[in-house]
Amino acid sequence: MHIAIVGAGSLGLLFAAKLSSVATSIEVITRTGMQAEVLRREGISIEKEEVVPASKFTIVSYEDKESKSGEEAVESPLDFLLLTVKQTAIDDELLSWIRNRISKKTTVVCFQNGVGHEEKLLGCIHADQLLLAVTTEGAKRSGASKVAHTGRGTTDLGFSRDVLPKEQLNTQKIFAGLLEKAGFAVSLSKNMNTKVWSKLIISSVINPLTAILQIQNGQLLHSSASQELMLDLYQEGMTVAKAKHIELPDDLWEKLQLVCEKTAENQSSMLQDLLHHRSTEIESINGSLLRMAEQLKLELPVNRSIYRIVRVLENK
Ligand SMILES: NC(=O)C1=CN([C@@H]2O[C@H](COP(=O)(O)OP(=O)(O)OC[C@H]3O[C@@H](n4cnc5c(N)ncnc54)[C@H](OP(=O)(O)O)[C@@H]3O)[C@@H](O)[C@H]2O)C=CC1
Ligand SMILES: CC(C)(CO)C(=O)C(=O)O
């Protein structure tokens, strides 16, 4: 199996390192030439676990114009392209690069939290080629070539479209098999919309609150005031989901609290982004809920305020 991983951040480094033992070839595409050089020298280390030598990967950088050529697709056709960049990095240039890099036989697997990426990708590839992955694995990059596996979870996998030809179901199983062999827990899903929306609602509560309050995920449960804020955001998100007839589990509120407990000592990705002066995924999480609410003529006052505060903090 020939796999390319676009985005050598927290999730990308973890999946590249783990999949290197089960794939025929792994191409890692970094954003910068500088990170590519470090990876070519040092390989990838998963803290407290293993160091995977650089010889296991082909490393190219997106900055390097040579690697943007579609010719490589002919030389080494990809079975899977894993997209592990943030929502904010998915722009027209990257989409056009992906279109050139893949062939009709390639399946793109996207790991983003929030919503928006699926629509963008469907603008450039066929639905039969797009696998959605919603993962509760936790990864945190601590250097150009170092990553910590901060939490073990499950990866839900499913195609963007509900009704699928047999061949696609087979592709889904092949990719799930690779992940399992690499040590990840996987669950195949026929209803990814429910998975995507469950994670969207959970992220719309935990991420902005931990980012604004500058606390670890578990600390959200420590005060009744923060729990009230959580409930306000949760209920607003659920109002949008209901208006859009999205099927969600009855115990999503309990699941949300469980995520806080299970990831109690983690900093959410939004808090990490703010602390590192990076833009956050607020647009694809609370921003997208607000845009949907506007179309549905619904008011989400708590989401609106929280969204504005995060935007202010991003520009500080
Ligand atoms: N980390 C986690 O535990 C989880 C993350 N997710 C989701 O997965 C996605 C990725 O998250 P995460 O890994 O944490 O994010 P990171 O910010 O750690 O990694 C994103 C990587 O993408 C790189 N990148 C940006 N643009 C390009 C480009 N054009 N070409 C190649 N690489 C590029 C960045 O490079 P540079 O650093 O040089 O800017 C960075 O290394 C997010 O949507 C997140 O919500 C979902 C579940 C868990
Ligand atoms: C906090 C958590 C687990 C849920 O929103 C997360 O996925 C993140 O940090 O982005």
TrEMBL record:
Residues 3-159 form the Ketopantoate reductase N-terminal domain. Keywords: NADP, Oxidoreductase, Pantothenate biosynthesis. Belongs to the ketopantoate reductase family. It comes from the Bacteria. It holds the Pfam family ApbA_C. Pathway: Cofactor biosynthesis; (R)-pantothenate biosynthesis; (R)-pantoate from 3-methyl-2-oxobutanoate: step 2/2. This is 2-dehydropantoate 2-reductase. It comes from Paenibacillus eucommiae. It is an enzyme of class 1 (oxidoreductase). Residues 191-314 form the Ketopantoate reductase C-terminal domain. One of its GO terms (molecular function) is 2-dehydropantoate 2-reductase activity.
